[in-house]
Amino acid sequence: MKSCKLYVITDVNIQKKYSHVELSEILCKNGVKLIQFRDKLMNTKELFQTAKKMKIICEKYKAKLIINDRVDIAMLSGADGVHLGKDDMSVKDVRKLLGKNKIIGGTAHSLKEAIDAEKDGADYVGYGHIFPTQTKLKSDKPKGISKLKEVVDKVSIAVYAIGGIIHSNIEEVLSTGVYGVAVSGGIINTKNVKSSVRNFLRILNES
Amino acid sequence: MYSPDFRLLLITDRKNSYHPILKQVEECLKAGVRAVQLREKDLTTGELIFLAKKLRNVTSKYKAKFIINERIDVAMLVEADYLHLPSSSIDIEDIKCFNKKIRIGKSVHSIQEAIRAEKSGADYLLFGPIFSTPNKKRFGKPQGLNSLKEINLSVKIPVYAVGGINSSRARKCMGVGAEGVAVIRDLMCSENLKQRVGEYKKILNKL
């Protein structure tokens, strides 16, 4: 997963300016190589139609498209993988369906969950939330940098830090040796999505 | 031509189930039901798979057919016998494009939809709601027996009547050429399934 240090999650609830498809175009055009399509409100048909369009855009720019939760949508749209939360299918079951060439990402809110994701065969794990975030309602406290460092040290698959990451705290996140950062609001809910992407990419490439 | 080997299709509705859903389904199977469709739209993927695996086991035990609503990933994972597509879901062509072998049931609400579904490769149709039902809001106005008759005359594939079905209404549906009936409430809400399923058996000749 080279040059995939910036992982952007599309969301049409925290911002209403752009659709998933429009976001894909803006993100890809400005150099994002890894995009996650996340929508908890669309019905199956809408998810499929949107994913198909996003996949075409991603392919054009040689970016990878990951689908949140829905393995069926990933299979039917030809997406590059799925991202799984704790209420979703298990990594083992998804691997049976998708085979070894597709990307499977897990979610971890603790070191144990991160280690389990690796054991189950996930290709990467998203760990967080690192900082306070408004993208998702969270009841638990932010994990912070030192816990992130612990996860990065203990697992060998790629770790993406997620939750409340903005360009002003990204250097601190990278100091843990984390593989990359997963960002939603920090990019798509800013005044200028294009310059936010460029800022993130610049900082990530410099480090 | 291929034909599904059942006349009575039980569609799950765990929220209105008399017993806990697994017991309710097993009681139906014990009483002779030969096809079960898992339709629980509000479950998370994880919960859905948990239930799907349990129901696959119990339907296999009774040599009954098992049908998954809308989710091709879940259908493939648990090796369901059919994938059922709601009328406004992903097109059959898109499903067949990904998996040629999977057998498909399809809900339709008009002759045009029925003809199109047959051309696209549906193995059977669910047509309804034939009668008024407490769930009618979800399914629209009753279509009536005349429409059921017309649908049966318009396609070669088997048509199951759905919506407000009970055993005496099942007789009327069979009278206009239905292959069988799909039942939710009349079986899900019933305590004495041996008796209730027995009534259907008398009318349908076989289950």
Describe what you observe in this structure.
The complex is a heterodimer of chains A (207) and B (207). With 207 residues, chain A is an alpha/beta fold. Chain A has helices at residues 20-29, 44-60, 71-77, 91-98, 111-120, 144-154, 170-174, 185-188, 193-206, and strands spanning 6-10, 34-37, 64-68, 81-83, 103-108, 124-128, 158-162, 180-183. In chain A, helix 1 (20-29) links the parallel strand 1 (6-10) and strand 2. The radius of gyration of chain A is 16 Å and the shape is globular. Chain A starts with 5 loop residues before the first strand and ends with a helix. Chain B is an alpha/beta fold and 207 residues long. Chain B is 43% helix and 16% strand. Chain B has ten helices and eight strands. Chain B has helices spanning 21-30, 45-61, 72-77, 92-98, 111-120, 136-139, 144-154, 167-175, 185-188, 193-204, and strands at 8-11, 35-38, 65-69, 82-85, 104-108, 124-127, 159-162, 180-183. In chain B, strands 1-2-3-4-5-6-7-8 form an eight-stranded parallel beta barrel, surrounded by six helices. In chain B, helix 1 runs parallel beside helix 2 and helix 8 (167-175) packs parallel to helix 10 (193-204). Chain B is globular and about 40 Å long. The mean pLDDT of chain B is 95. Chains A and B meet through helix 2, helix 3 and helix 4 of A and helix 2, helix 3 and helix 4 of B.
